[in-house]
Request: fold
Amino acid sequence: MGKVITLAIISVVVVAAMIVGSLIYKVELASATPPLKPHFGGRVNDFLLCCNGIMYAIGPPRGGSYLADQNTKFFKYWQSQRKGVWFLGIYNPGGACIIPPRCRRSTPVNGVIIHVGTSLF
Reply:
């Protein structure tokens, strides 16, 4: 009989502690985290063949000049050498397009494309 009462008291104390603890502990609401890599997107206005890849001039909404090298992965429709298609992807900041024919000059770009998806038209 004494063990049953002790067990009941311990159970009540544990449940009460859990209830009080849940009322005191404040849970913060989850929020969106920023992307791990910077992203870009827009219509391809122009492209230039470089010694180390292809430099794209991309228009708004998140435009700039970006370099696609041999490690770039193209997804959906693979429209890599056409003006007017839409690009959406992520990139590593920095980089340069090495200008042909002698590959001695370079022009800086916003970044080197990691993954990019393209539109059909």
